[in-house]
Write a structure and sequence with these properties.
Elements lengths: L12 H10 L3 H10 L10 E6 L2 E7 L4 E6 L6 H16 L3 E6 H6 L1 H18 L5
Parallel strand pairs: 3-4
Antiparallel strand pairs: 1-2, 2-3
Length: 131
């Protein structure tokens, strides 16, 4: 079994992450209902996970997968710039990021779940043991 490397995070973000969990958007709640309890092929997801100097909406350590649900503010250039910086840093830490809009989560949940499952299947195919 491979040893987990620790994900760096700013301890000051813990309280803010808790606040975000307690004040989730409807889209985040809808997606969480599909991710929690190891419903996605047995993988354990966490919500509002502090990593480095950011908070990731949903994170699975085993898959090294972050999932972001973007509301309308993510259409603004300044927010898009911050999102790009965040995603670049997460990628440097070995984390892949899937992004969905609030609208996609609320109206196209099957497509969102299919994209996540496609990622998981690709991950499993690349990481098969004993082949």
């Amino acid at each position: 079994m491979k040893k987990r490397k620790l994900m760096p995070y700013d301890p000051k973000l813990k309280a803010y992450a808790r606040e975000l969990r307690n004040n989730s958007t409807k889209a985040e709640i809808y997606l969480w209902l599909k991710l929690k309890g190891k419903q996605m092929h047995g993988y354990d997801f966490h919500r509002q996970k502090p990593i480095d100097r950011f908070i990731v909406d949903f994170f699975c350590y085993e898959l090294m997968l972050g999932i972001e649900v973007d509301g309308y503010t993510h259409e603004f250039p300044e927010t898009q710039r911050k999102d790009a910086i965040k995603e670049r840093r997460l990628n440097q830490l070995g984390i892949q990021v899937l992004r969905f809009t609030d609208h996609e989560v609320k109206t196209q949940m099957e497509s969102v779940l299919r994209a996540i499952l496609d990622y998981i299947e690709d991950y499993e195919n690349e990481n098969r043991v004993g082949l």
